[in-house]
Specification:
mainly alpha; AhpD-like
């Protein structure tokens, strides 16, 4: 198997990130619930190929992706609905729609296979984005492990308001998936954020993503609980971390994550009286540090990682000069994590629950975030 090894990397990578990425590669290589190991590795390869697809580039630039028809530049023998799913989720996740998913299912891609495909794509994207962020070459994809899919379907799946079924976040889950939301999320915790449930139709995908999130960001079970952040933060403080999270999400057009993490940033700003200029989340104009220490360098780095790889060496050097190797690694890890979170939210059609919708009304109006949601509706 092709393994990820950072022992000779020119920058020190935290051991927990290395282990999580190694585990992700092993996870991709083996058979899942709906796809063989060979098919899962093909999904990972197709995820990378999507970035060079001419049709995807035309769709991304179009007012509506539906305006552009044609064939994807595919490198695998995966079924056509799977190719379409991979390319759209990887390159234009902020404009997916329920009708699009229904079209894939009508064309023969089962809902479970779609969720698993998204999980493999997300794991690949997180690892690749981290490598790109810290300046490492992409890791060779793992060699497939033989075996048949399990065709496992969890008990109690429901349509909770997303476009795919999820395991409800009720305390006291029992059976083989009782740990799917992890102890800190099910024991005494009445609410599991909806995005954390997006991959739960294929439990191994959410378990793998949770391992990556814990290494790169904070444990999945405390996302949104600002009071518990400090003990897990490393080279970046909460304001810096959430500025990265919010900016990545805004550039991806992810309504759910931009709303949620802009709100976390705003709450932390009020607690620290830092004077954060929240427009830094959505503005294409350089607003300086915007009340966040080295905020300008962080935003430039995220912008380059998302939209202009030619500028990555320059922005990486600037960020490294201000925050050191550890700061660069943590910024790249946080950015990569939200490449994953955004695609969970948007591929599953995760919606704001009523409490969150009411609580975030002010920040959505301030930053004009409802335009992301309106754009998705327009794709219907």
């Amino acid at each position: 198997m092709s393994e990820i090894n950072y022992s000779t990397a020119p920058i020190r990578i935290r051991p927990e990130i290395e282990r999580a990425n190694q585990d992700a590669w092993k996870h991709i290589a083996g058979p899942g619930s709906w796809w063989t190991g060979a098919e899962r590795v093909a999904i990972a390869a197709e995820t990378r190929a999507a970035l060079d697809c001419a049709l995807c580039k035309k769709r991304k630039a179009a007012l509506s992706a539906n305006m552009m028809q044609g064939n994807h530049d595919s490198i695998s023998d995966l079924p056509a609905p799977a190719i379409e799913a991979i390319h759209r989720i990887r390159t234009d996740s902020g404009r997916l729609s329920e009708s699009w998913i229904k079209g894939l299912i009508a064309a023969g891609l089962s809902e479970g296979a779609y969720v698993e495909l998204a999980g493999v794509l997300i794991a690949t994207t997180v690892v690749d984005s981290f490598h790109r962020g810290v300046g490492l070459p992409l890791a060779p994809l793992p060699k497939p492990i033989e075996g048949k899919p399990s065709f496992y379907v969890p008990e109690g799946l429901e349509y909770e308001g997303a476009w795919v079924r999820t395991i409800p976040a009720a305390a006291g889950l029992a059976g083989p998936d009782e740990d799917v939301y992890f102890p800190e999320m099910t024991r005494g915790t009445p609410h599991v954020p909806f995005v954390n449930r997006g991959l739960s139709q294929v439990p191994e995908e959410i378990r793998n993503f949770a391992r990556m999130v814990k290494a790169n960001y904070i444990p999945l079970g405390i996302v949104g609980d600002v009071a518990k952040y400090p003990q897990y933060l490393r080279a970046l403080d909460t304001l810096q971390t959430e500025l990265v999270a919010s900016r990545v999400s805004a550039l991806n057009g992810c309504f759910y994550c931009t709303t949620a993490h802009s709100m976390i940033l705003r709450v932390e700003d009020k607690q620290k009286n830092a004077g954060v200029n929240m427009q830094a989340v959505v503005s294409d104009v350089d607003l300086g540090d915007a009340g966040v220490k080295h905020g300008s360098a962080l935003v430039k780095f995220v912008n380059a990682l998302k939209t202009d790889w030619d500028k990555l060496p320059e922005t990486r050097k600037e960020l490294r000069g201000k925050l050191g190797d550890e700061g660069l690694v943590d910024a790249a890890a946080a950015a990569a994590t939200f490449e994953g979170f955004n695609r969970i939210a948007d591929s599953a059609g995760i919606q704001l629950d009523p409490v969150m919708a009411e609580f975030t009304g002010g920040i959505r109006e301030l930053l004009g975030l409802d335009r992301f949601n309106a754009r998705t509706r327009a794709e219907q």
